[in-house]
Structure formats: C-alpha cells, structure tokens
Amino acid sequence: MKLILTAAVDNLGAPGEIVEVKDGYGRNYLLPRGLAIVATRGAEKQIQGIQRAQEARAVRDLDHAKELRTQLDQLTGVAVKVATSDEGKLFGSVKAADIADAIVAANGPALDKRIIDLPKGLVKKTGNYQVKVQLHPEVEAKVNFAVEGK
To answer: Residue limits of the Ribosomal protein L9 domain (predicted)?
Structure first.
C-alpha cells in the first residue's frame, strides 16, 4: 500500500514522505490514527505545495539562524490586535500563529509558529510582552510585541 505520511512515524519516515507499507499496517494503524493518507496524484501535488511552504519558513543552518536573530532584534512595531473588554481584558487568546503573522506584518521574516515559545497564560491583558523564538538549537531570539484592542 502506497501512503503519504502526515506525521513523523518512528522507523518509517517524516511528514510528506511517500512510503510503501503492508496493507494491514496502513489500513489498521496509520490511516485510522491520521498518520498517513492514501497516495494519489492530487495528494502528492498537495504535499509538494506544503513542503515548499515549509522550506520557505524553515531555518536552514546556524548562519541563517543568526541572521534571523539580528532581524528579529531590530524589529519594532510588532502588534497583535485582539477583541478586548473596556478594562483591557482579552475576549480570546493570543496564539503563536498570531505572533508569527504580526512579525510578518511588521516587515519581519516569516517564521513557523512552532518555534515561537508562548507560555500558556502569558497574555491575559493588553500591554507589552516578550516571547522566545528557538531558531536553532544554539540560537534563540526574543521578540517584543504589543497586544492591542480592536
């Protein structure tokens, strides 16, 4: 059975890889758990598009990570707009994807939301906050952002 992995599977492959597995393993384990999808021409094209987007956001090496850290350190005007009460309390929550979008809106680099370390419960009101961005195992940047009401 030919499948495309949607998540990393030990001893099999990484997301986006096309693998050949026994029918029972694919039908009874990988497909029901959402770890893979059946490989069709349409699915292969979709995976290629996803991989291109991931490569564009990926940090390539240590030098690239240091370059991104420099860009993030010089970045100003990062603002996340959310619905708030009159006292400044948030109606929703601020997610790492919101911060990544705000960085791009402030003319910063496009980052993957998974490398932004946003502790749970950090943002409860409007104001200024700081998060860590793990660009590389050896390179970490800090991004200051403001949470503003709409």
So the answer is: 13-40
Alpha-carbon separation of residue 109 from 95, 97, 122, 143 (angstroms) = 18, 13, 23, 12
Q: What token pair was written down for 77?
A: 């005007």
Residue 72 is which amino acid?
Answer: L
Number of domains making up the chain: 2
- The CATH number given to whatever domain includes residue 42 is 3.40.5.10
> What beta strand segments (E) does 8-138 contain?
18-20, 36-38, 79-82, 116-117, 127-136
Among residues 14, 30, 57, the one where a domain terminates is 57
State both tokens at 94: 């601020």
Per residue of the chain (150 residues), give pLDDT as tens. Answer: 999 988 889 999 888 888 999 999 999 999 999 999 999 988 888 888 877 877 766 666 778 888 889 999 888 889 999 999 888 888 888 999 999 999 999 999 888 888 999 998 888 899 999 999 998 888 899 999 999 988
Identify each DSSP E strand in 11-138 by its residue range: 18-20, 36-38, 79-82, 116-117, 127-136
pTM of the model: 0.64
Q: What angle do CA 103, 106, 112 make, to 5 degrees?
A: 20
